């Protein structure tokens, strides 16, 4: 019996984003940033710019008898867009365009009815929170921290 659905959920979020056609040219990164990225647009899954915590997990017994547990997980993610100029509007609009693709990827559709369950790894997932940061550091940078919340029965 699995002790957590989080590892599988993280893998499925990465796969879901890597297969999203509208994210061509966006680098999908598993965990914290590395070095020497040349892409101007990136999504980090399991990392945010505000701290090193990848996932917050809470579990409780699902019912009497203590045979199953419900697990709530809040997965930290971060979108970053950069440009070489000082125009802040372009990267700000871009992070919200990318967020819209992420949100759509997590929604059920006729073509992907299992998307919210991350291919059955969780009961459901949803995008629940976001926070925009903007900076000028060798060009305009917009960053959007967001959370994917999941519920699983383990």
Q: Beta-strand percentage?
A: 35-45%
Structural category: alpha+beta
Query: Strand tally, please?
Result: 6
Cα gyration radius (Å): 17 Å
| Quaternary | single chain
N- to C-terminal distance: 7 Å
Which spans have pLDDT < 50 for at least 5 consecutive residues? none
Global morphology: elongated
Work out the helicity level: 10-25%
Question: Major beta sheet, specifics?
Answer: 6 strands, mixed
Mean pLDDT: 91
SSE sequence, one letter per element: HEEEEHEE
DSSP helix count? 2
Question: What does this 3D model show about the protein?
Answer:
The protein is an alpha+beta fold and 154 residues long. Helices cover 19% and strands 37% of the residues. It contains two helices and six strands. The protein has helices at residues 6-18, 89-105; strands at residues 27-30, 41-45, 55-61, 69-82, 124-136, 140-153. Strands 1, 2, 3, 4, 5 and 6 form a six-stranded mixed β-sheet that branches. It is elongated, with a radius of gyration of 17 Å. The mean pLDDT is 91.
Compose a concise summary of this entry.
With 154 residues, the protein is an alpha+beta fold.
Topology:
Elements: H1 6-18, E1 27-30, E2 41-45, E3 55-61, E4 69-82, H2 89-105, E5 124-136, E6 140-153
Parallel strand pairs: 1-2
Antiparallel strand pairs: 2-4, 3-4, 4-6, 5-6
